[in-house]
Every structure is written in structure tokens, then in C-alpha cells.
Design a protein that fits this description.
- By secondary structure, this protein is α+β, with helices and mostly antiparallel strands.
- The chain folds into 2 domains: 2-93, no CATH class; 94-124, no CATH class.
- Helices cover 19% and strands 14% of the residues.
- It is built from 4 helices and 3 strands, in the order H-H-E-E-E-H-H.
- The protein has a 3-stranded antiparallel sheet, with no helix packed on it.
């Protein structure tokens, strides 16, 4: 899978582990929506927009497939700038009890040396 992602002629896509089996996080997750929500408006239909140009006053000019300029004011109040700190860290939630039970029930499809790692016994 790594060679497929990285072999597409771009240096931007690099496969990377985000965590280890021990629970160690290598790539932390942050609550960006909650953090930036009070300051910025939602950009609706973002998947239909292709190119963006952001001005000094946080006005975004977006270009659609039809090459129409669409202007958005992202900052709700241009006088209030978001803090420079990182938002709060979001720990991974882990598997639900239902998902753990499902994985344990299909463990007969998993190689014996991987069963305890991928489909451990469920402790309620």
C-alpha cells in the first residue's frame, strides 16, 4: 500500500504510522473545529471549490469548476483573531464494545500469530 501511495509521482503523499499497538500516538489529533469555530464561518460546498486565494482581511476568493469567482468572508469578526496556541489534544476513543465483540467473533479468519493483537478477548 505504501508503494502505491508514494509511487504516484508526488512527494506530498507519504505513508506514516499514526499510532502503535501499545497506544502510543505518533501523530496527535486536535479539536480544530471546536477551537476555530468561534472565529471562522463554515465554507459551504468546499468540495466543489478548486483554488483558493486568501486576502489580508481573511476574505477567500474561491474558484469553481466553471471558473467563477466566489467570495467568502471567513472571519466572523475581523477584529478578533484566533489564539496562536494549539487546540486541545483529542485522545483516540478506542474500539466500542460492540466492535470488539465482532472482531473476536471473526478471529478464526486471522493468522494464529496475530489473533491476540487484532482480535483480543473481550473484557466487559
Amino acid at each position: 500500500m505504501c508503494s502505491v501511495i508514494e509511487g504516484r509521482g508526488t512527494s506530498l503523499n507519504k505513508a506514516q504510522l499514526v499510532g502503535l499497538e501499545s497506544g502510543t500516538m505518533l501523530v496527535p489529533s486536535y479539536g480544530w473545529q471546536e477551537f476555530l469555530g468561534p472565529f471562522y464561518s463554515h465554507l459551504k460546498a468546499i468540495k466543489s471549490l478548486f483554488h483558493f486565494k486568501i486576502n489580508d482581511n481573511a476574505t477567500v476568493v474561491a474558484y469553481t469548476a466553471e471558473v467563477q469567482d466566489v467570495s467568502y468572508q471567513l472571519l466572523k469578526d475581523p477584529s478578533k483573531i484566533p489564539p496562536k496556541d494549539l487546540p486541545k489534544h483529542i485522545p483516540p476513543p478506542g474500539l466500542s464494545l460492540e466492535r470488539s465483540k465482532y472482531l473476536y467473533n471473526i478471529r478464526h479468519f486471522v493468522r494464529d500469530d496475530c489473533k491476540d493483537l487484532l482480535c483480543p478477548a473481550v473484557h466487559e
